[in-house]
Amino acid sequence: MSWERRALGHILTRVAETESRAAPRWPLYADPASGSWTTTARGSWAGGFWAGLLWLRVIVHGDEGASAAARSAALAPWLDADTAARGLIFWYGTSLARDRPESEALRERAAQACLDAFDPTLGMVPWGTAFGGPRELARVDALPGLVPLLGLAGPPGDAAAGAQLRLQLDLTDDAAVPAWARRPDGTWRPHPEPPSGWSRTIGWLALACADAAHTGQVLPPGELRQILARPCVAARFAPGSPAVPPASAVRRGGPPDTSAAAIEAVAALKLAALAEGRAASALRDRAAGVLAELVGSHLRDGRLLDGCYDLVHGVATRHELVWGDFFLAAGLAMLIGAIGPFAC
User: Fold this and answer.
1) N or C: less crowded end of the chain, CB within 10 Å?
2) Over the stretch 195-227, which tens digit does the pLDDT of each residue have?
3) HEC profile for 238-287?
4) Contact 56, 336 (CB under 8 A)
5) 25-to-40, 43, 111 alpha-carbon distances in Å
């Protein structure tokens, strides 16, 4: 058995064990020593990743899917939440539910809800108030999931996705500031949370750009190449770049963030599928190398350790994170051909 299949099997075994203990609560992050999960009642912004992991288990191991279907259905209350994180919740919580009419219907309802929330004056679906803080925030973690989800709403959805992506790209210069707040005069200022130097900024941005370029309706190939050439983006996908970024690029001596590395690996596999020749090979090799490093140095008993949830507030700074597990598992599944690069 290949290392990819073996590692994926360990992760999905851990998923099944956790589901049997945690349901109906939702795993969020787990203690690195004990493996005990901190859970939430409704899944928070990361609930879609748990449903996605259960759907991956259905695909890889042929489970009948009752648990996965129940988890996707349980996301429905988030349809009315005021947050752009509905992209993360509903895209990743339903996209792997192959040939499941209930999940497909939920995904379509979510796409329309996100389109209805699009504010043409702002040029985006606002971050919203569901998790506190200012409503009119442009955050890079609003993009992944939201871009392909909006695409399900037809041409108006593509236009909304394109506007949101371009706004974030215009704001996110080479300093890679992940969040911006709208001033009363219509201009934007950097917002302190997430802070500048945040580990997941490039991964989320690259993931959304790859999904936007997949159909060519939202982002033409030429624009994608320009984005990938930005120094802050190119540095993370260069062959010699460290596999795992620090949780903060501006705070010395901090922990790593393996979840950011897993996100970047999946983004690289998506970008490789869009590229040609040597560029495609280099991106795929980069993704495989990052995934091998994560498995070899940070995976223990199916748990991807050394993920950093929130460095600023000292929350789960060296932990197993549900989205880290998801993107590692998804990347491994892509490597072995169990799913395509744009399956989720």
Assistant:
1) N
2) 999 999 999 999 999 999 998 889 988 889 899
3) CCCCCCCCECECCCCCCCECHHHHHHHHHHHHHHHHHCCHHHHHHHHHHH
4) no
5) 6, 7, 25
The domain ranges of the chain are 3-335
DSSP string, 94-141: HTT-TT-HHHHHHHHHHHHHHHHH-BTTTTB---BSTTSS-SSEEEGG
The sheet with strand 26-30 has its strands ordered as 37-40, 26-30, 320-321
pLDDT of residue 14: 98
Q: Are 321 and 304 in contact (CB under 8 A)?
A: yes
Between residues 243 and 1, the one the model is more confident about: 243
Q: Which amino acid is at 44?
A: S
Q: What does the pLDDT read at residue 38?
A: 98
Cα 207 from chain centre: 7
For residue 13, count CB atoms less than 10 angstroms from its CB and return exposed for 0-12, middle for 13-18, buried for 19 or more. Answer: middle
- pLDDT above 90 as % of the chain: 90
DSSP per-residue string spanning 182-226:
E-TTS-EEE-SSSPTTBTTHHHHHHHHHHHHHHSSSSS-HHHHHH
Q: List 124's β-bridge partners, or say none.
A: 119
Average pLDDT over residues 310-329: 97
Q: What is the mean pLDDT of the chain?
A: 95
Top CATH class of 3-335 equals mainly alpha
**Residues 322, 29: contact at Cβ < 8 Å?**
yes
End-to-end CA distance of the chain: 25
Helix, coil or strand: residue 320: strand
Can the peptide bond before residue 246 be classed as cis, meaning omega within 30 degrees of 0? no
Phi, psi of 199, rounded to the nearest 5 degrees:
-60, -35
SS3 at position 7: helix
Chain-centroid distance of CA 126 in Å reads 18
One-letter amino acid for residue 1 of the chain: M
Residue with tokens 């690195």: 32
189 and 177 Cβ atoms separated by less than 8 Å: no
